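A.,

Following up on our hallway conversation. Structure tokens first:
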């Protein structure tokens, strides 16, 4: 059964860079073939050559011109069109003769996650292949306890919406302070201790409640810190991919 890696995250976090360099790393270091699927109908430039490109079906810029819509309206319309073409897209993806399939998703993550197109495509793919979501977050957005709690909560939401296991990946490692680095990798217990020590009032109480929710619902608990641009930490990403699909993998 094929293995698919769905790369998700907000605009500018480095998704396409990770997809491009992870493909190179796997092919060079492991010797396995990797295919790439672009699911962003609005992107202008990609740092890789996709094996399947959703822009062959629909482009946001074309919808803006033809239907006189703004960027967000055109993107939502594009996602509706993608949902109607889901069957053909899944069949084409499954026909790719590759060991791994990397799936690059739109920068407008909320429109992919919360419209029907994203979950529809992912759910159909999940019927035919093993899938793992990599939720990529910019290091500059994970510098405080509330930032990290928010990122981990977003991972829970992604897993619930798409129905696949997920891993939190913090990109642009060079932007992290040692304190933030330790906080990210210290686990939920470290976050709880920090919340208690900082005494942030209502914000602290909310953080504590959310940490309990994350603990109860999260299926994969070990975040990863990488630099996609420098290809640093990609061996850890590959190891995590292997562990998630191995029944003996300890992800805690």
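Then the amino acids I'd put at each of the 252 positions:
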């Amino acid at each position: 059964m094929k293995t698919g890696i769905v790369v998700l995250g907000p605009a500018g976090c480095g998704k396409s860079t990770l997809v491009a360099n992870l493909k190179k790393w796997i092919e060079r270091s492991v010797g396995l073939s990797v295919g790439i699927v672009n699911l962003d109908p609005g992107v202008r430039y990609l740092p890789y050559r996709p094996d399947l490109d959703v822009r062959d079906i629909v482009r946001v810029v074309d919808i803006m011109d033809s239907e006189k819509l703004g960027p967000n309206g055109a993107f939502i319309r594009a996602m509706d069109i993608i949902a109607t073409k889901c069957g053909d897209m899944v069949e084409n993806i499954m026909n790719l003769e590759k060991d791994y399939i990397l799936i690059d998703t739109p920068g407008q993550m909320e429109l992919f996650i919360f419209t029907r197109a994203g979950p529809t495509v992912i759910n159909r793919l999940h019927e035919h292949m093993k899938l793992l979501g990599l939720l990529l977050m910019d290091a500059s957005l994970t510098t405080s306890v509330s930032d990290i709690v928010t990122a981990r909560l977003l991972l829970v939401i992604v897993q619930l919406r798409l129905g696949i296991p997920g891993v939190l990946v913090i990109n642009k490692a060079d932007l992290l302070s040692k304190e933030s680095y330790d906080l990210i990798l210290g686990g939920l217990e470290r976050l709880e201790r920090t919340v208690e020590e900082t005494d942030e009032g209502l914000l602290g109480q909310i953080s504590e409640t959310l940490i309990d929710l994350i603990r109860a619902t999260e299926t994969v608990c070990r975040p990863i810190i990488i630099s996609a641009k420098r290809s640093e930490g990609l061996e850890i990403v590959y190891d995590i991919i292997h562990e998630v699909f191995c029944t003996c993998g300890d992800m805690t």
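Confidence is low (pLDDT under 50) at residues 247-252. Curious whether your intuition agrees with the design.

B.
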